[in-house]
Amino acid sequence: MKNMPGTKIKICGITNIEDALLASQLGADALGFIFYRESKRYIDPEIARGIISNLPPFITTVGVFVNQELDEIIAIKDMTRIDAAQLHGDESPEFCSLIPFKVIKAIRVKDSLDLDRVAQYPVQAILFDTYSDVQYGGTGKSFNWGILQNISNTSRIILSGGLSPDNVAEAISTVKPYAVDVSSGVEDTPGKKDHMKLRKFIEAVKNGN
């Protein structure tokens, strides 16, 4: 089965230049850098700045934040030159509207979805991830993708949560998202990518499975 043409690919949890450059070379459209200190994939903003400065042109860089202060987000943006902020905590629509650059709001899906709540967010994209009681993202578990089939406009949807080379084609066929986002599904250990899994994931998105 062929995947949706032009489905974008974001590789998240980047912590080193080798993984960043390989993901870019293989065809990733965006790279994610986690600036939430409680994450196993946390990266110091100064290290992220060094990686970002060595990326090829046209790669979108995304900083991931969880319930962090506006001043901190803007300071990290200024230091690292990330292109967008991904807010993965309990941020309100009002808070999202204060950020003076592109915003992706993560919504953690349990067993249903409040579409009215989703529509309140004044952001460029909505990322749907799997709900967890103990952590914000990075669970390696998927949710029922059928929940998203009631969304009429999928051009703002980024699908995340438990994606891997083995299931990403089915996920895209079901949801038809603008982009897919993967971290743990292409890792050796948290923050270190498995280069074979990375290659297979990107091939699965681009070529069908």
Strand content: 15-25%
Helix content: 25-40%
Low-confidence stretches: none
Mean pLDDT: 92
Rg from C-alpha positions? Answer: 16 Å
Total of domains: 1
Helix-and-strand structural type: alpha/beta
Which features does this protein show?
209 residues; alpha/beta; TIM Barrel; eight-stranded parallel β-barrel; two-stranded antiparallel ribbon; globular
Structure description:
The chain has 209 residues and is α/β, with parallel strands linked by helices. The protein has a single domain (8-207), classed as Aldolase class I (TIM Barrel, Alpha-Beta Barrel), CATH 3.20.20.70. The chain is 30% helix and 22% strand. It has seven helices and ten strands. The protein has helices spanning 17-26, 45-53, 70-80, 93-98, 115-119, 168-175, 195-207, and strands spanning 8-11, 30-34, 60-65, 84-87, 102-109, 125-130, 157-159, 179-182, 187-189, 192-193. Strand 1, helix 1 and strand 2 (30-34) form a beta-alpha-beta unit. The chain is globular. The model has no long low-confidence stretch (mean pLDDT 92).
